[in-house]
Design a protein that fits this description.
Layout: E1 14-15, E2 32-33, H1 43-46, E3 53-54, E4 63-70, E5 81-89, E6 98-103, H2 114-119, H3 122-125, E7 128-133, H4 161-181, H5 191-205, E8 210-215, H6 217-228, E9 233-239, H7 248-253, H8 255-273, H9 275-278, H10 284-300, E10 303-307, E11 312-316, H11 318-327, H12 335-355, H13 357-365, H14 369-379, H15 399-411, H16 419-429, E12 466-471, H17 479-488, E13 492-498, H18 511-523, E14 531-534, H19 541-544, H20 560-571
Parallel strand pairs: 6-7, 6-8, 8-9, 9-12, 12-13, 13-14
Antiparallel strand pairs: 1-2, 3-4, 4-5, 5-7, 10-11
Helix pairs in contact: 5-6, 8-10, 10-11, 10-12, 12-13
């Protein structure tokens, strides 16, 4: 079935076959309609008057509304309208002279919290109207769902053909589940549709140009907004970058090396430095051996424990360990929690091996309720930022965000089809980057029938300066992606944070970077050339001891993406 796209009715010719570089597999579509410009907006959407209501506590000064958008911007009179949840915060005094939109990435992350988050940045709060929104498919907007689709309980390192066949079957089953649960909406969850939603928000707010702060997958969204609406582009900051000049395939293939580098070159040396406190190994190699030994032990005998007076059961196996480690690579503020949890699980596994499940359960029962609660929260959390495909279907993921992630990444750009590419990637990357390299087979996009869509490649031509921000050891969006995109994106400036690996920089990770970004957003003055800021290092363990925050995440609220998630939770649920 051919799905209608933005280009329908524009008389745009079909593109040539889209080939994924480096793959001999058949692409996920053979011909594509090039969607190279937005569709003219029907008056019925421009004439709507959003009903703004206060959302969250009064101290947030945040107002939310839902706006109506067409399901398909190329077919605005079909009657299949969607609702998009939008938030805004005005300056405390006076009228705003500019507007700044924000997106937390994912892709698929709910973004209502971007408005109060950006308003919490004092330089922006003075004269910017700050705006957040939940992209179509997720959050308080019209949702898509993949509810019931299988997750990945198999060990990706197990190369037995039967095990690999199960992984392939699980990947292939995702799309049918998503299609059925999403009531025909899935083909319209694309960046080409979302950027037009964004621009309708701009028009309804009455601004000619928008400024923008996009993190992670939000860099992809920001670059495409610039491409589709160059006349309405103000000051754009793209933080922790995908390579938006290529395909999603290129971005995700870079992750195994980046996560491994973060683990081996940042976490392991840090843990070894403080071995007298953390007891994971006195050298980086010793820390890695601790992880590998624990992984083997958990695969042989998983530890299944009851927490909080048997109210919650947590299973620690090799996959849970891998996910715990990779999730905690996104920010150095989680390094201490990771070290403590690894030591706890190691002791738990040893107790079980020696005294059986009852001995392991006694280990858990001896913990304080606060510590048990923290372990439960961390076991059920999801990463904030561009996650890996292997986390699909993980308990803790919000279904609509999970489904939107898959729709955007699998719909936007072509993927090679069938199990061959994943198997080849795993065989090539797994031995060198085992933390997530073997999970290259766990990807529904290799089995995804895309809509008939090709979007124009972002080039930056004719745009104002774009400020790109990147830490050198970012695990989720490799530094090489930023360098590659920067080299192809006309007029961009790259702000590199050295000796740093946090994913999501602006807003509290590095004071030097914050000054440069705030100067750019408030005055328009960009660096004359590429610039770098020195990282501030990884704090000692006693500076990273976590507490439970009121958002219930168990994370420090000082990380930008976690603060955004906290704000989103606080201001969501007020719209009906």
């Amino acid at each position: 079935m051919k799905y209608l796209t933005l280009a329908v009715g524009l008389g745009i010719s079909a593109a040539a076959v889209l080939v994924v570089p480096g793959s001999g597999a058949t692409a996920s579509m053979q011909t594509a309609t090039v969607v190279d410009k937005p569709h003219r907006v029907a008056n019925k959407y421009l004439e709507q008057r959003p009903d703004w209501i206060q959302c969250g506590e009064a101290e947030f000064r945040t107002y939310c509304a839902k706006i109506t958008v067409p399901r398909d911007w190329a077919n605005q009179y079909s009657g299949n309208d969607l609702q998009i949840a939008v938030s805004k915060v005005a300056p405390a005094k006076g009228k705003p002279s500019r507007v700044v939109f924000g997106n937390p990435g994912g892709p698929g992350g709910a973004g209502l919290g971007m408005a109060p988050y950006l308003a919490s940045q004092a330089p922006l709060a003075k004269d910017h109207l700050t705006v957040g929104f939940d992209p179509r498919g997720t959050g308080g907007s019209t949702n898509v769902s993949c509810d019931g689709s299988p997750g990945y309980t198999m060990d990706p390192r197990d190369r037995d053909p039967a095990n690999q066949a199960l992984i392939s079957e699980a990947s292939a089953m995702v799309k049918p589940y998503c299609d059925r649960q999403s009531r025909g909406l899935l083909p319209y969850i694309t960046t080409a549709q979302t950027v037009q939603d964004m621009d309708l928000i701009r028009q309804l707010l009455g601004f000619d140009k928008i400024d923008y702060v996009g993190y992670s997958g939000g860099t992809w969204l920001g670059a495409y907004y610039q491409t589709y609406f160059p006349d309405h582009v103000g000051r754009f900051v793209l933080d922790s970058n995908t390579d938006f000049t290529k395909t999603w395939f290129d971005t995700f293939v870079s992750q195994p090396q980046a996560f491994e580098r973060r683990f081996r070159e940042d976490f392991a040396p840090w843990a070894a430095k403080y071995d007298d406190q953390l007891h994971l190994g006195s050298s980086p190699a010793g820390v890695i051996r601790t992880y590998e030994r624990l992984r083997r032990a958990l695969k042989e005998r998983p530890a299944v424990e009851e927490f909080l007076d048997a109210a919650v059961q947590v299973r620690y196996d090799q996959n849970a360990l891998d996910m715990m480690v990779s999730n905690d690579m996104y920010t150095k503020l989680d390094f201490y929690s990771l070290a403590v949890d690894m030591a706890f699980i190691r002791d738990l596994s040893a107790a079980q091996a020696k005294g059986g499940p009852q001995a392991a359960q006694r280990q858990v029962d001896g913990l304080s309720l606060a510590r048990q609660q923290q372990l439960v929260q961390r076991a059920n959390r999801a990463p904030v930022g561009l996650r890996t495909f292997g986390t699909f279907g993980t308990f803790g993921m919000v279904d609509s965000e999970d489904a939107t992630f898959n729709a955007i990444t699998c719909n936007d750009t072509a993927w090679p089809q069938g199990p061959e590419t994943g198997a080849q990637l795993a065989a090539r990357l797994g031995p060198h980057f085992p933390l997530i390299g073997w999970t290259m087979t766990e990807n529904p996009c290799f089995y995804w029938n895309r809509p008939n869509l090709t979007m124009p490649t972002p080039t930056g031509n004719g745009l104002p300066t774009t400020l790109m921000v990147q830490s050198v050891h970012d695990p989720a969006t490799s530094y090489g992606l930023a360098v590659s995109a920067h080299s192809r994106y006309a007029g961009s400036r790259l702000l590199t944070v050295t000796n740093e690996g946090d994913h999501g920089v602006y807003g509290g990770v590095n004071r030097c970077a914050d000054r440069i970004v705030n100067t750019f957003l408030t005055t328009g003055k960009a660096p004359a050339k590429d610039v770098s800021c020195a990282g501030e290092g990884i704090p000692a363990p006693d500076k990273l001891m976590p507490g439970l925050d009121e958002a219930g995440t168990g994370y420090s609220k000082e990380t930008p993406l976690r603060r955004i998630a906290g704000f989103t939770k606080a201001v969501s649920g007020y719209l009906h």
